Amino acid sequence: MHSQPPWRSARRRTAFAASTILAILLGFAAWFAAPSACAQERRDREPNSAYLERRAKLAAQVDCPIVLLGLTGREESSQAYLFEQEENFYYLTGHNEEGAGLVILPAKSSGSDASNSPREILYLPIKNPQKEKWNGVRMSPADPGIEARIGFAAVKPFVEMRAAVENLAKTYPCLYTILPYEKELGGYPHEKEAVDWLQQAAPQIKLKDIRGKVSALRQIKSPGEIAFLQRAIDLTVDSHLEAMRMMRPGLHEYEVAAKMVEVHAMGGSEAEGYAPIVGAGPNSVALHYDKLSRKIEDGDIVVLDVGAQYSGYSADITRTIPANGKFTPRQLEIYNIVLGAQNAALAAIKPGMDLCQKGSKSLQKISYDYINSHGKDLHGKSLGQYYIHGLGHNIGLNVHDPGEPCQPIEPGMVVTMEPGIYIPEENLGVRIEDDVLITEMGYKLLSERLPRDPAEIERIMAQAAAQRATAAKRGND
Length: 477
Description:
The chain is of the alpha+beta class. The chain has 13 helices and 17 strands.
């Protein structure tokens, strides 16, 4: 999925049909099979120590308390809405339930707070047995052993959080929180509501933005995060292979997308990282095409940009394949140019390079120069004009995770490499996208198992077509 403006990177959790149905079934199964007092989690999480370490790193960087609010569960009115915690809050807590709050005191404290009081507190809603009859068991501050379970020295009722913030405002001149991202757009609703809540609790206090410091931490992935990303990538590779095997003229785009989502869900994915993109023929040149309505025709090229999410972490992989299993000469020409551009960028990846559009360290420029110097359009003009997006972006808890294109890449980052050419007058779009872990010496291609070579793609599709023909013949005998 190509790079996009930051204000469009937030993802609504209205799940694709197959994921929603599976989630509901699993939820009912868990409720009836395990009616204990333990809340039910569908996703894995890192050890409590990982979240504790992140909070400690933040506490060491600030001179005032950090106050964050999680999502409430009221952000989306759709009946298909699946709750997913706000990313920064989840990154620091590992808590994926509604209505929570977080306070972290600065590591170096002075004044009346420099006592034996807890340095960080998680606030949770109080127990609501009536609501749990409908929505399932939730964690509460009254649960036995809740502190050890969630990894906090103190867990208190959320109703006490406002008084705590009021007291902090008497001791400190400021509070850190996440301020609205794009002020001219009003910010995301959750961010604006959180700021309003803080200003009501402490109208005199100065609010500072903690987003940049959290974003900096999120860019370097922990071993646990890399493992979750690899699991999401592996499921995505499986779904792309299944799409290659089933692809043929006569199918609809939505049928291919549904099969890919089914593969994800059956493998444990709780949602897609973004709305599935299956664009055939003229739809292959629309970068975020998501209508999925076209009947795939003989001769179409099909762009498959579909990524699984696993334990909150999103893969982002694209392949472009021929609908009938065989690239036309022109399709193959453009495909090989895009593949060459990707290989040129991969060959140059190492710490210190960047995804900027220009400069001596620019991987984007390497890929653009390759495309611009290979092949022509129908009018004899260079193809660079049809490469209309960035080369890549960070992935993690968001498919467009924090990270600026012009900052140097560092070991531990996971980024996409996704050059593309889109020629509307030829109904010909090609994008090849892979997920890459930056290492000390270069990179590791996390999606390497999914073929990029066009001959290998054609071989997989031909083998599947032969198997379908054999099965059909047996059915007719």
